[in-house]
Amino acid sequence: MCPLRCKSLHDFLQALGASIRLLSKPRRGWQWGPKSINVNLCFGKIPVADVAELLTLEGVSKRVPDAVDRWLFEEVALRLDRGEFVAILGESGVGKSTLMHIVAGLDRKDGGRLCFAGQDLDDLDDDARTLLRRRQMGFIFQAFHLIPQLTVAENIALPWRLNALPRKGLPERVRKLARFLGIEHRLEAWPRELSGGEMQRVAVARATLHDPALILADEPTGSLDPDSAAQVLDLLRDAGLRAGSAILMVTHSEVAAACAHRRFLLERRGLRQL
Ligand SMILES: Nc1ncnc2c1ncn2[C@@H]1O[C@H](COP(=O)(O)OP(=O)(O)OP(=O)(O)O)[C@@H](O)[C@H]1O
Ligand SMILES: [Mg+2]
Q1: 185 with 135: CB under 8 angstroms?
Q2: Which architecture characterizes domain 9-17+28-273 according to CATH?
Q3: Would you list the domain boundaries of the chain?
Q4: Whose CA is nearest to atom 9 of ligand 1?
Q5: 71: left (phi over 0), alpha (psi -120 to 50) or beta
Q6: What gap in Å lies between CA 196 and CA 212, rounded to an integer?
Q7: Residues within a 6 A CB radius of ligand 1
Q8: How far apart are CA 129 and CA 87, in angstroms?
Q9: 26 near 163, Cβ under 8 Å?
Q10: CA distances (Å), 132 to each of 117, 149, 160, 171, 212, in order?
Q11: Which atom of ligand 1 is nearest to the CA of 92?
Q12: 155-186 pLDDT, tens per residue?
């Protein structure tokens, strides 16, 4: 079963069809695998139609948690094409993170329709949604959700490994991405040894390494200095150009939002194009 809202690391792993067994003595290096991570869901592929329209939201609504008749937001409509970069701005508490969780299937909507490459997500069972999320989506959480028992390199490689993508060349691929983000010297560090900005860059690397069709970025530059923020935004733009990934980013930063092709403001009555 998919967790209702990805609030913790455990939820994050569960959402990827995996769980972690605590090692009494974590080791550095590329040693993890069956010893520390269980892949609970067998590998598989969800066929994704090769259509330009990657994500469609129609009338998506969400009630205020624990309230029966109060709406957090209503009638959110959006179409996101492959390779497109869309930014959503909005006041704190308006529901930006909630909307991102709904798109990833980590939170329930209370109304409307959500399609991925023309496939209504309500028509997929939990396992199918998990596989879709694991292979086709990369999620940069506002709270990072790095795995404390894994080194930086292992954290970055996690979705790649869970998807059983070829191991050949993986360390070099991780290193190249870490170098671009200025965290190459931290690859063997544990998450607890990192600054907030370093954690954020690890989260960005982890969400993009496996070239997902959709990158969901929740405040991806919130903890970064201007230079590091510019690198992250370059990386996201590059993912769109290189791998055709679509990027949906929520942010408070006008500078970050200016990098997107289209910008919206999330309000209680839905999305307003800026
Ligand atoms: N699991 C939950 N249980 C109860 N209330 C919740 C839960 N998750 C979110 N909320 C509430 O829903 C509202 C929207 O939260 P959300 O995190 O989506 O806002 P946000 O727009 O991302 O804010 P910020 O810009 O501060 O990150 C808030 O009032 C929050 O307190
Ligand atoms: Mg938020």
Answers
A1: no
A2: 3-Layer(aba) Sandwich (3.40)
A3: 9-17+28-273
A4: 98
A5: beta
A6: 24
A7: 5, 65, 72, 90, 92-98, 142
A8: 24
A9: no
A10: 11, 25, 14, 25, 10
A11: 25
A12: 999 888 888 888 889 999 999 999 999 999 99
Distance 254 CA to ligand 2 centre (A): 15
Residue 101 in tokens: 């969780």
CA of 4 to the centre of ligand 2 (A): 16
CA dihedral (124, 129, 135, 138) positive or negative: positive
* Residue 222 CA: distances (Å) to CA of 47, 230, 262: 34, 12, 20
Q: Cα(101) to centroid of ligand 2, in Å?
A: 10
Gap from CA of 190 to ligand 1 centroid (Å)? 29
Place of tokens 């059983």: 164
Distance CA 91, CA 246 (A): 24
pLDDT tens-digit series, residues 236-258: 888 888 888 999 999 999 999 99
Taking the C-alpha atoms of residue 218 and residue 122, their distance in angstroms, rounded to an integer, is 23
Whole-structure pTM value = 0.89
Show Cβ contacts of residue 228 under 8 Å, excluding neighbours closer than 6 positions: 181, 182, 197, 201, 221
92-123 residues labelled b (16+ CB within 10 A) or e (exposed): eebbbbbbbbbbbbbbebeebebbbbebebee
Ligand approaching nearest to the C-alpha of 95: 1
- CA dist 249 → 10, 94, 253 (Å): 23, 15, 11
Distance 22 CA to ligand 2 centre (A): 29
Look at the chain and count its residues: 274
Atom 3 of ligand 1, residue of closest alpha carbon? 65
